[in-house]
Write a structure and sequence with these properties.
alpha+beta
Length: 238
Amino acid sequence: MYIYLAEETYRLSLHDQMLVDFHKENYNNSLNIIDYIKEQKAPSCINIGSVTLFALYDYFQREYVLKPLKVYEDIILKISHLIPWESITIVSKMSNFPHLIGVKPKNDNTILTHSNKVKLFLDGVMYRWILFDYNQYFCLDFEKIEVFSWIKQTLSNPTYILTKSAIRPNGTKICADLFFMKRILNSDKYCFHIVALKNEDANNFAFVSQFAIEKDRLYRVNTMFDVSQAIYSYKKPR
């Protein structure tokens, strides 16, 4: 049996019409918020009060999941003799999203590693029973959220690119194959933004983490990495 949605052949009940109008309004609001997120380039941060968790989820899906993201070829050419990959293509899944905004179960300091917990969080965001200001099960890292829109900028115009050989084992627990670091100028709060990538297969990579370094914690950069081992520097490629 087919239901034709033309007005003259099918009319919604008042209750259903209210639901349709409500969800249309939410959809349009999300599109406006996504536009706002896209506009936030470093050093401008996302204002948590101006976005919803669902819009952030939708933004990630549109920008990174529905289409792979490739690192610019001119960057690859400058480091091709120092890496075993012909290109760097970031293939994302929605399950990457919680890690990028620092989601942790409440009363638990570990990141989400259990697939059921990841699914619970994603379902909660999609069906709107997990919100910024109403969340019974998880903690969110609001500093990661406010720099979430910087990811593409850091990947397309890094100050440094490091490999895992530059990691100082005693300075960080991050395990990744590549780190893109961007110096943030004219920010009152942050001095660097970092995106960590893990090689999955061939030339395909996945997001491991993204975060910013606060200006008063600049020492963390050298605590975590030996920057002298950078395979790419914006001013002077090796």
